[in-house]
Amino acid sequence: MCTGKCSKCIGVVLFPLAICAIISNILLFFPNGNVLDPKNITDLVWYFHGILGAGILIILPAFMMLGAGGAGCCANRCGMLLSMLLAVLGTTGGAYCVVISSLGLIRGPFCDIGNGNYSYPFQNDSLTDNYLFNQTTWSICKKPENIIIWNIVLFSLLLGIGIIEAVLCLIQVINGLIGFICGTCMRKRKTDIAGM
Fold first, then answer.
1. For residue range 114-165, what is the model confidence (pLDDT) as tens digits?
2. Per the UniProt record, which residue ranges are transmembrane (predicted)?
3. Nearest C-alpha neighbor of 175 from the set 81, 98, 44, 99
4. Domain ranges, residue 152
């Protein structure tokens, strides 16, 4: 496969993933669709792992990948080099999203455990007694309603998106390096050789 076409395909796939990550991160600010006092929102949301990490830091390399893979041309060595460098940045953004999302799942939600007392009731759970696998403990969170499901779904979605983005950006690092070194497609080379 031509390195330029591969670059373009990766760029096209990264755009919807970045948009989904941004939307998921924004939804974490509104647990169960409610507007809460900012101090009552899980603090990991304020790291903007979906907006910045899996969003903006992925959109930038995606644009460059589309440019480097324009019209199926692989001879654009400068474009492939830049797409490779920005893919490293994208890999970092995806990894950042994975780390924060994992911490969000492990720590659990920030919720009202009664009488307006907000805390992280599952923060010190062991892996064997984790709230993720023990739904009977979920009743400890009184408000916001369905906060545990809200957090699990959105943090899991961001975790998955971050993993996919990091893998795709790593593939682009390798693809960009090949495109920078080799420059042209094998098919184009065969055509040029046949024309001689």
1. 888 888 988 876 666 788 888 888 888 888 888 999 999 999 999 999 999 9
2. 12-32, 44-68, 80-106, 148-181
3. 81
4. 3-195
* Helices (H), ranges, the chain: 3-28, 57-68, 77-107, 147-182, 186-195
Task: Name the domain count of the chain.
Answer: 1
pLDDT tens-place string over residues 51-62: 999 999 999 999
pLDDT per residue as tens digits for the range 58-86: 999 998 888 775 554 445 777 788 888 99
| Size of the chain, expressed as the number of residues it contains | 196
Structure tokens at 55: 């969003």
Helix (H) or strand (E) holding 119: strand 118-119
pLDDT recorded at residue 74: 44
Q: Are 8 and 79 in contact (CB under 8 A)?
A: no
Exposed e or buried b per residue across 83-99, where buried means at least 16 C-beta atoms within 10 angstroms of its C-beta? bbebbeebbebbbbbbe
Residue 72 dihedral angles phi and psi, to the nearest 5°: 70, 15
